[in-house]
Design brief:
With 902 residues, the chain is α/β, with parallel strands linked by helices. Among the domains are: 9-208, Immunoglobulin-like, CATH 2.60.40; 248-362, Chitobiase/beta-hexosaminidase domain 2-like (Chitobiase, domain 2); 414-449, no CATH class; 481-616, no CATH class. It contains 23 helices and 39 strands. The strands form ten sheets. It has an eight-stranded parallel beta barrel with strand order 20-21-23-24-25-26-27-31, surrounded by six helices. It has a six-stranded mixed beta sheet with strand order 12-19-16-17-15-14, covered by helices on one side. It has a five-stranded antiparallel beta sheet with strand order 5-6-3-8-9, covered by helices on one side. Strand 25, helix 17 (621-624) and strand 26 form a beta-alpha-beta unit. Residues 1-17 form the signal peptide.
Length: 902
């Protein structure tokens, strides 16, 4: 399309002059050159002015299929309709421009005459003017209406950082410009991201409801008020409380409180015989200092001794005795000593710095108590990671699953493969992807965005050392063979560079795809080029190179690499028509005879490659389920991420029955990138649940997955049934059933995926305080958990395995923990400068009086009447007009998101 511009008379003359040939020998050549430069400058400034001033508004119209889907849609098809408004301040851009934006759910159909939308790759879409486009007119709003796939149930689905790319009169692309009105802003009081370009959801049926059967209540103030009725303020419950809950705790009946205001004095007399040194417990001692209990002479004496006993204690077991004479810690390993100090820190009243006399005997329920963090989709800083590790140790978590390679980014420097970070760690507007990956997830066009980045070798070594000093194992993960677009595109750049130099053998050494493969596929995230070709030997050279280099970094850090996570999940239908794969199937020594076997072959081969290096292989449960158990190392680890309400307990049982290290990672209770409450303003994806608050995690019964059907509802707020009895196929073969004798889960892991989480502060908001409940469930087995029935059983809302007595015990323990958080523990997070989520407030108005409550009693509630300032809420109070409520952080410095009382 020829570029045309709406110009004033002056600009038109400049353009005409700029289009005239310049004769450098003529007397007026310099004048013409200046005119060209002026015109060039004007074009660039015009684009920038448009980007800076155009107002964009994104509006979800409807999720109702009868309104959104076409007339010929399938009965179960789901669609949504959304609109994008463009309001320009002046007449602009009648021509060759493109606006790029991220749209999580692909656009199916454009319903406006003046615009086209094309999906570029993944979630990146491009808006261009159609032949009917008449230009942006000053003050006139143009609306782009479109139909998308599935639904949008959250205001945060609308990704930020739209940007425009235009061409000058010569057809040359100008520098991209971010459209200012689509940038995120930070709320001054909450510190959280806000999206001024997104219109508020107001229509529950058309915007919030997932389907006609969706009964999940919108978490408005009245809904939260009813939910919060299960807890009431009782500061005394927090006095002797510890998180996570210890196995045994005996409070001295007549023991006076022990003051730690003068600090603690560590007695290292027995350190040598215990194999302990100050460094082993220093991190735990430092956390004490953060709440005001420093290490100094004259403080309360803390002695260290062997735990002893005839029975073999679990790693991390300890005893802690506190009285007026001092504090005694007993353990048999450094983690036990550290965890004892962590329990002391949890006990302390952060205001008075006192603890009561008592004795504690404690040991962990699970050996594996993990937290997974994705830094691939959006990068998160080394400092964030160090802060997270410190808090994990404070609550006795011991495994950090660090996800550093995926479609949207490669985040670790690898010796000999600089392209992985030179190209794969950045997203920017380079459609050829020679210098960076395509923009995704609202990252915008510039490589210097904070969502880009990587850990240098020195950074990674520092992270490992920091974790090791806190008894935390680092488990690295570069997802393969799917979710590998960053690696593929980086190695493509390497290939092109070396081929240009004539170095053919070197160019092919780490190539990851078959250039002649015509297979068409689409991943879950809508990529058609994100899967390694598993039939190429160069793929295995690459995998071996990466693992060997990571292992070397672990060795340098002093924590040998003992577990590596392959990923192996969500592999799309790639390589089906690959000539290389066809040749491999026709002639290989691995027994692969069918194209359907090559995915499992990759996992099995890499797993055994790891085992030969003395490294435990790990993967996600869907990929691991495709393997032949007999071909896998016996100590393989599987992370079960199946949804329990969708029979996810069946795969969990199957993989535990394989004898594998089976780690529960179930999304509806352990994915911390999901919303806290069912509210369109809450951050996060929501494909497994739309309400994942701390109480829900606390209620988890990991030892009896199907029994959770008696206390939970599915994603739409409806009951579900879990049938754990043996199931046979037509041939009498067992297809699902209960855990076999001796089979058990090895632990649980929280997950933080970062597609929608761009800042360190927002990631902390999503992780805390849920991390504390993860620790509670990983460490402590509650008395109210329904015992597992080895023969199998049926569980639903009417069965009574979860008895009234158990429910009462659960409620009483939650009452204690909720008060512990509100009256004591959150203040400690404040002192550590952790930006945890301050909960939204429950409230209702009856007979002109405001009633309010909160999930964590002890936090201050505030209310605001229309036209007035914020006031502390202390008791029911008379109000009139529109009223808002909010909570305040434990230290009084941060505010939670406010809600209209309704």
């Amino acid at each position: 399309m020829k570029t045309t511009w709406a110009l004033s008379a002056i600009m038109m003359s400049l353009t005409m002059a700029a289009c005239s040939p310049v004769d450098s020998n003529s007397s007026n050549g310099s004048v013409q050159a200046n005119e060209v430069a002026t015109s060039e400058h004007w074009y660039a400034e015009s684009v920038k002015k448009f980007a800076d001033t155009v107002l964009i508004k994104y509006r979800l119209v409807t999720n109702l299929p009868q309104e959104a889907c076409p007339e010929n849609a399938k009965p179960d098809e789901r669609c949504f309709i959304a609109e994008i408004d463009f309001t320009s301040n002046n007449d602009m851009l009648l021509g060759n421009w493109e606006i790029y934006f991220s749209q999580m759910r692909p656009v199916q159909t454009v319903l406006s005459d003046e615009f086209n939308i094309e999906r570029v790759q993944g979630d990146l879409h491009r808006i261009t003017p159609s032949d009917k486009f008449k230009g942006f007119k000053a003050g006139i709003t143009k609306t782009l209406r479109f139909r998308g796939e599935l639904w949008q149930l959250s205001e945060t689905d609308a990704m930020p950082n739209y940007y425009i790319v235009a061409k000058n009169q010569y057809g040359e692309a100008l520098a991209p410009q971010i459209i200012a009105s689509t940038q995120l802003q930070i709320d001054a009081e909450t510190g959280m991201e806000v999206r001024p370009y997104v219109e508020d959801f107001v229509d529950a049926k058309r915007q919030y409801q997932r389907s006609e059967t969706d009964k999940l209540a919108w978490a408005k103030s009245s809904v939260l008020y009813a939910n919060n009725q299960s807890v009431s303020p009782n500061a005394e419950l927090a006095i002797n409380s510890i998180l996570p809950t210890p196995t045994k705790q005996l409070i001295a009946a007549d023991g006076a409180a022990v003051s730690l205001q003068a600090g603690i004095d560590i007695d290292d007399t027995n350190f040598s015989q215990l194999g302990l040194d100050q460094l082993g417990i220093q991190a735990a001692v430092d956390r004490l200092a953060k709440i005001g209990v420093s290490q100094q002479k004259g403080g309360v004496k803390v002695s260290f001794n062997s735990l002893g006993g005839s029975q073999v204690n679990k790693a991390g077991s300890y005893e802690l005795a506190i009285d007026q004479k001092g504090i005694e810690v007993k353990a048999n390993d450094v983690s036990g000593f550290s965890y004892a100090i962590a329990s002391l820190t949890s006990l302390i009243n952060p205001t008075t710095l006192t603890v009561n006399s008592m004795k504690i005997e404690d040991e962990p329920r699970y050996d594996f108590r993990g937290m997974h963090v994705d830094v691939s989709r959006n990068f998160h800083s080394k400092q964030f990671m160090l802060d997270l590790i410190d808090q994990m140790a404070a609550y006795k978590l011991n495994k950090l699953h660090l996800h550093m390679g995926d479609d949207e980014g490669w985040r670790l420097e690898i010796d000999g493969l600089p392209e992985l970070t030179n190209v794969g760690s950045k997203r920017c507007h380079d459609l050829a992807e020679n210098s960076c990956l395509l923009p995704q997830l609202g990252s915008g066009p510039f490589a210097d965005s904070k969502v880009n980045g990587y850990y240098s070798k020195a950074d990674y070594i520092e992270i490992i050392k920091f974790a090791d000093a806190r008894q935390i194992q680092v488990i690295p993960s570069m997802d393969m063979p799917g979710h590998s677009r960053a690696a593929i595109k980086s190695m493509d750049v390497r290939y092109r560079s070396l081929m240009a130099k004539g170095e053919v053998e070197a160019a092919n050494e780490y190539l990851l795809t078959d250039a002649n493969d015509p297979t068409e596929y689409s991943s879950v995230q809508y990529y058609n080029d994100n899967t390694l070709n598993v039939c190429m030997e160069s793929t295995y050279h690459f995998v071996d190179k990466v693992i060997s280099e990571i292992a070397a970094l672990h060795q340098q850090a002093g924590q040998p690499l003992t577990t590596y996570h392959i990923g192996a999940d969500e592999t799309a239908g790639a390589w089906l028509e690959s000539p290389i794969c066809k040749a491999f199937i026709a002639n290989n020594t691995y027994g692969v005879t069918d194209i359907k076997q090559v995915g499992a072959y990759f996992i099995e081969r890499v797993a055994n490659m790891l085992a030969e290096k003395g490294i435990q292989p790990a993967g996600w449960s869907d990929g691991m389920s495709h393997t032949n158990v007999a071909n896998m190392p016996k100590n393989s680890q599987s992370n079960v991420w199946d949804v329990i309400s969708h029979k996810g307990y069946q795969r969990a049982h199957q993989q535990a029955n394989n004898g594998w290290t089976t780690i529960l990672s179930n999304p509806e209770v352990l994915y911390f990138d999901f919303p806290y409450e069912a509210d369109p303003k809450e951050h996060g994806y929501y494909w497994a649940t739309r309400a994942l608050n701390s109480q829900h995690i606390f209620s988890f019964m990991p030892g009896n997955l199907p029994a959770n059907a008696e206390q939970w509802l599915d994603i739409e707020g409806n009951p579900f049934e879990a049938d754990d009895r043996p199931k046979l196929d037509d041939k009498g073969q067992l297809i699902s059933g209960p855990l076999t004798n001796g089979a058990q889960f090895s632990g649980i892991q929280g997950q933080l995926w970062s597609e929608t989480l761009r800042s360190d502060e927002l990631v902390e908001y999503m992780i805390y305080p849920r991390l504390l409940m993860l620790a509670e469930r990983a460490w402590h087995k509650p008395s109210w958990e329904v015992p597992y029935q080895a023969q199998g059983a049926v569980y639903n809302q009417t069965t009574q395995h979860f008895s009234a007595s158990m429910r009462q015990q659960q409620a009483e323990q939650w009452q204690r923990i909720a008060n512990h958080l509100g009256h004591k523990e959150l203040l400690k997070l404040d002192k550590a400068e952790i930006a945890y989520r301050v909960p939204t407030v429950g409230a209702k108005i009856e007979n002109g009086q405001l009633f309010a409550n909160i999930a964590f009693p002890g936090l201050q509630i505030e209310y605001q009447q229309q036209g007035k300032g914020w006031q502390p809420y202390l008791q029911p109070v008379a109000v009139d007009g529109e009223v808002h409520v909010r909570a305040v952080s434990a230290d009084g410095k941060r505010k939670g998101r406010s809600l209209l009382v309704q």
